[in-house]
Specification:
Strand order of the largest sheet: 1-8-6-3
Shape: elongated
Radius of gyration: 38 Å
Strand content: 15-25%
Number of helices: 6
CATH topology of the domain at 3-77: OB fold (Dihydrolipoamide Acetyltransferase, E2P)
Order of helices and strands: EEEEEEEEEEHHHHHH
Distance between the termini: 125 Å
Length: 274
């Protein structure tokens, strides 16, 4: 019989979790205790272990979906085994619990999230993702229940913008290079600092060529074209021949002038005495 894969309830306050990504695809073999999914809650991010060994038979939710706790997200079982379709996404009912009286003056505090130096609330995993991928949290649209940025929000920002290392982004900003025009050479197309250097050098070369072309155009506009006389043509031909046909020779001669310098010094001494 296929085993249900449900959204775990990690603490008393947890009501739902966000699927960051599946670590296994339908049809992949899964061992008991092997991580098959990465999720994020209001407080932390974690990977979920498979409760059984088998093949991943179904996935009812995808990355970015918010799933209530104890909801069936998929099944693990024998290859080709049928899994329930009706009510697959319905939450598994929990056993009746004894009602607890809450203190009237005590209100449930919202999940705690961290803020960066600019005061932007974000989950720890979202902050790590943003830092590793050079994403400015100010540019990320939060979707958390309390206005915090979650990992899925950072993933969305990564997909929507050119992926570049922090150093490459800083170099691009300093040199005025548009990241959207660069094809990254790093892993999965990530833009590296070498890509920025190459793009800047190419832009500089293009600018220099454009300047030279403009200068030549200006020169051509002021120059007056004249037909060379027979004498000037002969002079040009002879000068070209002398440069290409007559070898250029450089001769170096080493001379010892030690005695000559001594004689010079002696003569100068005599002049001073006279």
């Amino acid at each position: 019989m296929a085993t249900e894969l449900t959204m775990p309830k990690n603490d008393m306050d947890m009501e739902e979790g966000t699927i960051v990504k599946w670590l296994k695809n339908v049809g992949d073999k899964v061992e008991k205790g092997e991580m098959f999914m990465e999720i994020e809650t209001d407080k932390t991010s974690m990977e979920i272990e498979s409760p059984a060994t088998g093949v991943l038979l179904a996935q009812f939710y995808q990355g970015g979906d918010v799933v209530p706790v104890n909801t069936v997200m998929g099944y693990v079982g024998e290859a080709g085994e049928a899994v329930p379709e009706q009510g697959a996404k319905a939450a598994v009912e929990e056993a009746p619990k004894e009602e607890k009286k809450e203190a009237p003056a005590t209100e449930k505090a919202p999940a705690k999230v961290l803020s960066d130096a600019s005061g932007i609330p974000a989950t720890p995993y979202a902050k790590k993702l943003a830092k590793d991928n050079g994403i400015d949290l100010k540019e990320v649209v939060p979707t958390g229940r309390h206005g915090e940025i979650r990992a899925i929000d950072v993933f969305t920002a990564i997909e929507a913008s050119p992926v570049a290392t922090p150093l490459a982004k800083a170099m691009a900003a300093d040199l005025g290079v548009d990241l959207s025009t660069i094809q990254g050479s790093g892993y999965r197309g990530k833009i590296l600092s070498d890509d920025i250097k190459a793009a800047f050098a190419q832009a500089q070369t293009a600018a220099e060529e454009e300047n030279v072309a403009g200068a030549m155009k200006e020169i051509a506009e002021v120059l007056e074209r004249r037909k060379l006389s027979s004498m000037r043509k002969a002079i040009m031909k002879n000068m070209n021949s002398s440069h290409t046909e007559i070898p250029n020779v450089t001769q170096n001669i080493k001379v010892d002038v030690t005695e000559l310098l001594a004689l010079r010094a002696k003569i100068n001494e005599g002049k001073e005495e006279g």
